[in-house]
Amino acid sequence: MPFALRSIVFVVAIAALQAPAWGRPLKLCFEDIPQAPWTMPDGTGLNIELIKRAATLAGEQVDFIPRPWRRCEEETRNGIMDAMVGPSDNPRRRVYSVPPRKADGTQDPERAMYHDHVDIYLRVDSGASWDGKTLVNPRKLVVAQRGYYIVDMLQAMGQKVIDTPKSAEEGLRLLAAGSADVAVLMGRDAENLLKADPRYKGRVVLAREPFANFDFHLMVNRKSYDKEPRRFEAMWNAIAKVRATADYQRLEQSLVRQHQHE
């Protein structure tokens, strides 16, 4: 074989080895508002870093696409997106998407992206309280962010939910203004705002017990999963492997701790 031809064959072979094991890049949407330390609108955050490392391990290519959360869900439902970054598993989402699962069909926390809690905030002198089990809320009005499963949970508890806020900051503002006496808000931004912003001092308090604890996943569109189940199982397995590494655990602990003290 001529040298030039051997060189071409060698380059093609190397390119094949370096190419992803699968076809087109996966389209993954994430929320377009800050959810530090997990995702940020500019495409940074622990979830993004975790998926990038997992994709390398699984021989994948991924495209990250910021979206309002409701649009992210709808585009996953419609098959425009292959998966959502960081939602919780629940019956509503199971209709059109799947989390990593154990043999019995329940969600697999070992292959989740992270575990976190959702906080509940109370307006001072409103008569509202939360002990971890029972919500006392005389007006039965609760502020929560649009598109989140906590809205479904609160409605099932008989609460009337004001779900116009997109961000935790909007939710706190409504609570402090008296639109409701309770707010259930995702992420740690609300905690930091409550500590740092004088507008909330003496007007809003953080309940001692969280409202709920969740595992958060890479939730995959059902049609995408049914078409290429091994592809997504490989990604979930890679997520678990990356999360188990000492390097990633140090990074997660550092950024979570940093954000808690901002």
Name of the CATH class of the largest domain: Alpha Beta
CATH fold-level topology of the largest domain: D-Maltodextrin-Binding Protein, domain 2
N- to C-terminal separation?
64 Å
Low-confidence runs: 1-20
Task: Tell me the CATH superfamily of the largest domain.
Answer: Periplasmic binding protein-like II
How many distinct helices?
10
State the CATH architecture of the largest domain: 3-Layer(aba) Sandwich
Rg from alpha-carbon coordinates: 21 Å
Organism: Massilia eburnea
Protein name: Transporter substrate-binding domain-containing protein
Offer a concise description of the structure:
By secondary structure, the chain is α/β, with parallel strands linked by helices.
Describe the structure.
With 262 residues, the protein is of the alpha/beta class. The protein folds into two domains: 22-114 and 214-260, D-Maltodextrin-Binding Protein, domain 2 (3-Layer(aba) Sandwich), CATH 3.40.190.10; 117-213, Periplasmic binding protein-like II (D-Maltodextrin-Binding Protein, domain 2, 3-Layer(aba) Sandwich). It contains ten helices and twelve strands. Strands 1, 2, 3, 4, 5, 8, 9, 10, 11 and 12 form a ten-stranded mixed sheet that branches. It has a two-stranded antiparallel ribbon with strand order 6-7. The relative contact order is 0.17. It comes from Massilia eburnea. This is Transporter substrate-binding domain-containing protein.
